[in-house]
Automatic annotation (TrEMBL):
Source species, domain of life: Bacteria
Full protein name: Cysteine desulfurase
Biological classification of the source: Bacteria, Bacillati, Actinomycetota, Actinomycetes, Micromonosporales
Keyword Transferase applies: yes
Entry similarity comment: Belongs to the class-V pyridoxal-phosphate-dependent aminotransferase family. Csd subfamily.
Main EC class the enzyme belongs to: transferase
Protein's GO biological process: cysteine metabolic process
EC number: 2.8.1.7
Matching Gene3D superfamilies: Aspartate Aminotransferase, domain 1, Type I PLP-dependent aspartate aminotransferase-like (Major domain)
Protein keywords: Pyridoxal phosphate, Transferase
NCBIfam families, per the entry: sufS (TIGR01979)
Underlying gene: csd
Pfam family of the protein (one): Aminotran_5
GO molecular function terms attached to this record: cysteine desulfurase activity; pyridoxal phosphate binding
């Protein structure tokens, strides 16, 4: 497809024909999880119906077919994110596991100085992070005695990088930050942060959970060391995600889990381990899920990520204008489309977000309410929670109009 034909795309998503409470389904929660096209659903079903077997264990036909499909999905995903080799793609169950895998590599006794962490060393994150990119580093700091530091935010929902040289210092060993905020929609300047980290010799991990599904991401061009992302936000199944890492770093990292498939030899006195990515994929992997994610990558590649970006930018501009025209609505985060994605969090004065969400659900409008696993961001902006509408390649202006009508009803009910 050379341009985004939203009506044709919507026909690929069976769930979008549903009704909720007698109203057409308006799905505005893609930042939480995306819907799945028939092509992905069919790929998973066909795998189970025709090729189901375990991988890397059998020489029979089904085992070979399953292994080829699994490793073929790895190749597709590597190509989608610009990885130099599929060996740099480690399958995980989600972004959270991918981030924890990296955190596990650091210790006070690591043989590799890049992963040696102790008192006096620093880990840097941001106030904007999803909990999955805060808690693992808090736990690592507690285990090693390292210090956790973070960048704050401006009132506009941007990272405050004015003191970047004081936050990222020669003591910094790792900088971990979100590419595209799941609550604010802010797209952060990876190049600026990564450049400072390189100056001091720190490793850089980027949480790409929201960026990889929505914007073209080339991991080789980002200038970072690790990128975590997840399948269910990019049209793929749940239970499958990935960690991209520079091979030399993956090769220096210890196993995350022990078990079958990740070993070279096992004796009662010791074990040797496979090279990456197998070293980090102990046990039976999410085979059908990987096949489904490969199909999702095929779908997004056929649509074209540039077309996805253009569509989402137009939809977001439309939604920002529409929501800001409603009295008592406050946008939390950037109010323009500059360096922001297709996620808008807002509050309605005097109404708890849970009440907003219930009334919108009565109208068939599906949004997320709460702190979106980003409670420090809510605290920063002085709100207990927000209502979040998040869009994707299948979102239409009619659905934004339905959202605004629902918010107007909220105001009338709670007037």
């Amino acid at each position: 497809m050379s341009a985004l034909d939203v009506e044709s795309i919507r026909k690929d998503f069976p769930i979008l024909d549903r009704q909720i409470n007698g109203n057409p389904l308006v799905y505005l929660d893609s930042g939480n999880t995306s819907q799945k096209p028939r092509q992905v659903i069919d790929a998973v079903r066909e795998h189970y119906e025709q090729h189901n077997a375990n991988v890397a264990r059998s020489v029979h036909t089904l085992g070979t077919e399953s292994t080829e499909a699994f490793e073929g999905a790895r190749e597709k995903i590597a190509g989608f994110v610009g990885a130099p080799t599929a060996a740099e793609i480690v399958f995980t169950k989600n972004s959270t596991e991918a981030i924890n895998l990296v955190a596990h590599a650091f210790s006070a006794v690591s043989d590799d100085p890049r992963f040696r962490l102790g008192p006096g060393d620093e880990i840097v994150v941001t106030e904007m992070e999803h909990h999955s990119n805060i808690v693992p580093w808090q736990l690592l700091a507690q285990r090693t005695g390292a210090t956790l530091k973070w960048f704050g935010m401006t009132d506009e929902g941007r990272l405050d990088l004015s003191g970047i040289d004081e936050v990222i210092t020669p003591r910094t060993k790792l900088v971990a930050f979100v590419h595209y905020s799941n609550i604010l929609g802010t797209i952060n300047p990876v190049d600026v942060i990564a450049a400072r980290a390189r100056e001091v010799g720190a490793l850089v991990l980027v949480d790409g959970s929201q960026s990889v599904p929505h914007v073209p991401v080339d991991v080789s061009a980002l200038g970072v060391d690790f990128v975590a992302f997840t399948g269910h936000k990019m049209l793929g199944p749940t239970g499958i995600g990935a960690l991209w890492g520079r091979f030399e770093l993956l090769d220096a990292m210890p196993p995350f889990l022990g078990g079958g498939s990740m070993i070279e030899t096992v004796s009662m006195t010791g074990t040797t381990f496979m090279p990456p990515p197998a070293r980090f994929e102990a046990g039976t992997p999410p085979i059908a899920q990987a096949v489904g994610l490969g199909a999702a990558v095929d779908y997004l590649s056929a649509v074209g990520m540039d077309a996805v970006v253009a569509h989402e930018k137009a939809i977001t501009a439309y939604a920002l204008d529409a929501l800001q025209s409603v009295p008592d609505v406050r946008i939390i985060g950037p109010t323009s489309t500059v360096d922001r994605g297709a996620t808008i969090s807002f509050t309605v004065e005097g109404v708890h977000p849970h009440d907003v969400g219930q009334i919108l659900d009565d109208e068939g409008v599906q949004v997320r309410v709460g702190h979106h696993c980003a409670r420090p961001t809510c605290v920063r902006f002085g709100v207990p929670a927000t209502t979040r509408a998040s869009f994707y390649l299948y979102t239409t202006t009619d659905e934004i109009d339905a959202l605004v009508r629902g918010v107007e009803r909220v105001r009338k009910v709670f007037a």
